[in-house]
Write a structure and sequence with these properties.
This protein has about 240 residues and is an alpha/beta fold. The protein contains 14 helices and 5 strands. Helices cover about 60% and strands about 10% of the residues. The longest helix has 26 residues. The chain is globular, with a radius of gyration of 17 Å.
């Protein structure tokens, strides 16, 4: 396995930028059913087809904010989409703020989302609600109300669920909140990016080791953010096809 990783690294250095990016993300590919969902992003599809400038706002918590502007999955999402659509103007705005529930995030939409008039809003949520044990019905209501508000502003919306790590799932009951996210997505016809299942797949397949010493966490986080950005770009392109 180590020889394989080293070989991939050497090969990537020799490739042109676009092919290098594809090679570097190949190791974190996932089954299609984890990425592909039925709801479509009609407005974004029209923007891509007509070569109009595209703005995407990603709103969420600490895992969206990342470790800095260039070490976050929204940063890598923008890079991947620009690579997929080289003739298009694409801007991804990171509106991650740690420690907020879904309701608190939705309260920020008026300031942090709607003024940008985005074609798409990616809403990552659920972690803080699960950690605090917030009422699941209130969580579901916040999702429904937030989705409605985004649509009233003529933007597409995509939900993203929580991160997975063996340590977190051993102490936090994510299941009721995951179920609420799935139900909201199904009832509202919203694309759900399955980050939880994606990271669980990577953990079980040995792609990433999430329980690592503190001094290695930043390096692993950067790789995970890059892979999440790549897969999120795949999901967005699939939904906007």
């Amino acid at each position: 396995m180590r020889l394989f990783v080293i070989s991939i690294g050497l090969l990537a250095v020799m490739l042109p930028p676009a092919e290098r990016a594809a090679a570097e993300s190949a190791h974190c590919a996932v089954p299609r059913e984890i990425v592909e969902d039925e709801p479509r992003l009609a407005q974004l599809a029209a923007d891509f087809k007509s070569d109009r400038a595209v703005t995407i706002v990603v709103i969420g918590g600490a895992s969206t904010a990342g470790l800095g502007p260039e070490i976050s999955y929204p940063y890598f999402l923008e890079a991947a989409l620009r690579r997929h659509h080289p003739k298009q103007s694409i801007t991804v705005l990171n509106r991650g703020v740690g420690g907020q529930t879904a309701a608190q995030m939705a309260a920020r939409f008026a300031k942090d989302v709607f003024p940008a008039a985005p074609s798409l809003v990616v809403w990552e949520t659920g972690t803080v609600d699960a950690v605090r044990g917030e009422d699941t019905n209130a969580f579901a209501d916040a999702l429904t109300d937030g989705i409605a508000a985004v649509r009233q502003h003529n933007s597409g919306v995509m939900l993203m669920d929580m991160q997975f790590s063996p340590g977190a799932v051993s102490v936090i009951n994510f299941e009721p909140y995951l179920e609420a996210l799935y139900q909201a997505a199904a009832l509202e016809g919203v694309y759900l990016f399955q980050r939880f299942n994606m990271m669980k797949y990577w953990d079980e397949a040995g792609v990433f080791a999430f329980n690592v010493p503190r001094e290695k966490r930043a390096a692993v986080a950067r790789e995970v953010y890059e892979c999440l950005g790549e897969r999120l770009a795949d999901a967005i392109d699939y939904a906007a096809r």
